[in-house]
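JOB MANIFEST
job_type = single_chain_structure
chain_count = 1
residues = 506
[input]
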Amino acid sequence: MSLRTRLLCLTVALVAVGLFGMGLLVTTTLHGYLQGRVDERLALISQVAARLAVPAGPDTPPSVRAVNVLGDTAVRYVDDTGAVRRAFDSGTAPPGGGPDLPRLDRAAVHAREGRPFSVPAREGEDTWRVIALTQPAQVFPADRSETRGSVVVATSLEEVDRTITTTRNLFLTAGVALLAVLGAAGWFAVRSGLRPLTRIEETATAITSGDHSHRVPEPASPHTEVGRLTTCLNQMLDRIDAAFRARTEAEARTRRFFADASHELRTPLVGIKGYTDLYRIGAMPTREDVDRTMTRIAEESERLTRLVEEMFLLARLDEDTARAGAGGTPTAREPAFALDLAPMDLRTLAADALRDVRALDATRPVTLTGPGGGKPTTAPTYGDEARLRQVVTNLIGNAVTHTPAGTPLRIGVGIVGPHAVLEVADRGPGLTATERDHVFDRFYRADHSRTRATGGSGLGLAIAQALVTAHDGRITLDTAPGQGCTFRILLPLPGPPDDRTADATT
């Protein structure tokens, strides 16, 4: 059975039990009340009849006729042995042929002590209420004989039973009608109350069919049980949807990475294989040809080695990032990539970068300033100098390689808020918004027309971002077409000595 049906059946059953109990209580109370009224009337009649002398004639005396006016009442005068001396009934036929009285001798009458009791009718299922009282001794004038006896007064409970039956039938009829009305109203009420669960079912069905963006409609009152359940379910669905999107994006990035990596690795391998095939078929007759070919093989091998090392470095950085996101701790497992953290100043890297630019292109103007301009200042941080130098060298190389000759460069260093900052800015052609969004992607090149000799493998900025992130910092890019590029490295300022020690152990 469905929950709706079970709730409705339970509600109707509880109402039915309540109505049955109420009807039973009312009819029982009413029966007791009516029977008590009959007992009071019997007590009065029996006391009056006990004081009367036993009528001598066959006719019903006026006193007994007055008693019969009160209803179907029968009067019996019995002697001490219980034998009936005189019997008077109502003018009409008594219900059930009259009461079926037991033998009431004087001892039995004394034993009942004037308490009412019930007896069945001679015929049918009617019931009579009876009271028996002893009479005082009577002396007959004819023979001066003395006699004792008792009077038995009985009245029918037909009217009481009819009233109880009518009341019971009324309760049954009204109860059945009320249950029918409540059942119909309860069906609509339960369906309305369970409508939020129906919405949850519909949402689950939509999500199962692939629509992960579907959500449960918010109820009017968010503070009810259904409202809180809806809020929790929507939050859970948001997280599941975000996890699915993240997994899909990760799978897409992984496929793209393997495709790009395969392409990048295949290029030097194809070159090496081509040169070896030429040598094998004897296409290099002179020593000069062999030396030139070996030089090309060495260059391709060096490029292949560098590409593999860069990919391996990214893989180790990704492993540490994934472990940190999953709540892993360094004590549970050694990190795949360890940083040699120590106190340092970014001004040292900025000064070295200035010299590197002059060595790469002595004709290019380069200046050393603070962040955004001004005077350079100290920029203390806590990091791995060799790895940060690799980041800065990559940024300087990109600026020199991808901007026209003579384009001015600026290297900024200092403190901005809670960060030590190092900037590499150029006044080159800049990047579009789309290129800016993908510039840190792996194997991405803003200018696809560049060769790999001038454009690189497309992993440099990805490695730079991963290394800065490993230092709990971030790298940003401000650019626009015609306004150049400004790469900004932001690293946290050094903390207390205890924090430095903890970072070093990490």
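[summary]
Residues 326-334, 448-455, 497-506 have pLDDT under 50 and may be disordered.
Residues 3-165 form a domain with the Beta-Lactamase fold (CATH 3.30.450).
exit_status = 0
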